Amino acid sequence: MKPVRAVLLLSLLTTTFAGSAFAQDNSRTLLMQWLADPDVYKENDDLFFLTGTGNGVLIPLYESNDLTAFRFKRDYNPSAADPTYDYCFLWAPDLSKVGSSYQLHFSGHRVPNGAACPPAGQEVTTFVATAPDLNLVFGVPQPINANTTWPRTTTGTACLPQGCNRNIRIDSATFNDGADRWLFYVWFQNGNNISSFKLSAPGTVYNHAGPAVFATPAYEEGINEAPELFKRDGRYYMVFSGGWYNSQYAMYYVMADSIPELTRARAVRRQSLPLKNSAGRLVQSHGHNVIVERRGEYFNIFHQGAFDSAGNLTSRSTYKQRVAFKPDGAMTSLNQVSVRWNRLAGYSYSLDVVLKNGSVVGPCTSVVLLGQANKTVFDGVCRSAGDRVVTKGEIAAFRLFYSNNNVWGPSVEKAYDGISDDVSLELPGGVTPFVDLEWSEEETLAQYSIDVQRRDTGAWIGPCIGVGAVNKSLSWTYTGRCDTPGINVPFSNIQAFRMCSAVNGDWAHARCGAAAYDGRALHSRINIP
Questions:
Q1: What's residue 3's pLDDT?
Q2: 115: Cβ–Cβ under 8 A, 6 or more apart, which residues?
Q3: pLDDT bucket at 25, cuts 50 / 70 / 90
Q4: Contact residues for 78 (Cβ-Cβ < 8 A; gap 6+)
Q5: What is the mean pLDDT of residues 42-53?
Q6: What is the pLDDT of residues 241-276, one digit of tens each?
Q7: Is the pLDDT of residue 4 over 90?
Q8: Is-contact 410 403, C-beta < 8 A?
Q9: Confidence category of residue 44, pLDDT binned at 50, 70, 90
Q10: Angle in degrees, CA 219, 224, 226, rounded to 5
Q11: Which helix (H) or strand (E) holds 353?
């Protein structure tokens, strides 16, 4: 999160996937040290431009032909470009194309030449500058929608008469949907909130996220910011960040069939977890990301926060990591892997990670942490190995040890592709303790119920888990009992799971999708057509 006063901030210089991600390098790579709040503009598959928060006075611009190696192009100094005003505490630029020219939106403060910056009683706002060509020599910054009642550039601290969501404060992002250009931005009220408008119809404002309009969980700390949009296979995605920039900062997203539907009324999906060590102190955070496509492959470009031993933020730099998509369009996460295994009665477990370089981090999660549990979420920190940080792309396999007498000899191993969110290991002679079900999101406000098909008779039990329990959730752990009819249906006697969805309780017109089940698997993903 960028606070209202930016002084401190600016002192911090498996699932079936679409595409061919498995054959690719899924490692996390550093693109630009000390650069925060990254934005990438794609001119074509062989020309990209990277910008972001620099030293607070200049906005740096970098160029690349492969989205990997970036070279410095130039700085933009709005104070030098403007004969009347000086600008300071510049952050979160957005680079876009309008016709044959280019625009740079950025957040900051503006004062008359030579005046103290920022002045008392002024709030951060957003300006836009234009360049005629790809030399990216931007001219004098201009306010947005000046002298109107539309969302606009405002340096005052008060909310506008038309509402706080008309104050364009920070984190602007432009998006062209083919018919209209949109401007997304952040405004302040009870925290940070995200809204947007069509540039062709600025009088209508769409509220997408934030505590002033929607209920937000405590771990987001009242902060929803850094919106970016992209479209894939007919779906729109809005990625955004939650939490304070020096605290629980993390990446989230929502998916929908249209831009106005991209709100917290949809499922909010977590894309990253801030890393904490075994003492609970922050080690690493991730945020302010943009998803960029090159030749059919997608990459998450984000800034990564580094913390000292006391958990204090020390720096932020921009990284790139490949992202893949699940059958329902959901993205793989940055640093989460759900690891599951079947149960051996009376046994305890310990988890190692085998790295691509052939070394082993073990135990990564010891028996002290796992005990007799049959699943864990690997989040990037091996807390039983001195809090070593291991990214998903470094991992070649997960290795699980099992013992009923504290002698740790037997183990099973499962190869890992460096990108998936789910891994299951099978212990010889083990039994299935649960099935984690996940399914696709349907219409906004849809509710769901779960049916099971018996293997012995072929009959469906529906609902097995009713809407009163499932409600709007997109996941459920089935443990062998159909709660609604009050009967047990063991995993071995299940032939298929079926998910049904309805809006406003209209189950007579429910939409359903099913997935076959083999009686042993620990995870099943169901797509509702």
A1: 38
A2: 86
A3: confident
A4: 59, 85, 87, 90, 106, 108, 127, 129, 138, 140, 141
A5: 98
A6: 999 999 999 999 999 999 999 999 999 999 999 999
A7: no
A8: yes
A9: very high
A10: 125
A11: strand 348-355
Ordered domains of the chain (ranges, CATH): 32-323 (2.115.10.20), 337-425 (no CATH), 435-526 (no CATH)
pLDDT above 70: percentage of residues in the chain: 95
Token pair belonging to 165: 């969501």
Give the closest residue to 304 by CA, choosing from 321, 292, 325. Answer: 321
Residue 434 tokens, joined: 């649960």
The distance between the two most distant Cα atoms of the chain, rounded to a whole number of Å, is: 83
Residues 112-124 pLDDT 10s: 999 999 999 999 9
HSE (side-chain half, CA atoms, 13 Å) at 459: 7
DSSP string, 115-152: S-SSPTT---EEEEEEESSTT------EESSTTSSSSE
Q: How far apart are CA 388 and CA 278, in angstroms?
A: 10
Q: Which helix (H) or strand (E) holds 107?
A: strand 101-112
Pairing verdict, β 481-482 and 487-488: antiparallel
Residue, of 3 and 49, whose pLDDT is higher? 49
Is-contact 363 385, C-beta < 8 A? Answer: yes
Q: Return mean pLDDT, the chain.
A: 95
Q: Which residue has the tokens 């002024």?
A: 122
Q: What's the CA gap between 271 and 290, in Å, rounded? A: 12
3-class secondary structure, 23: helix
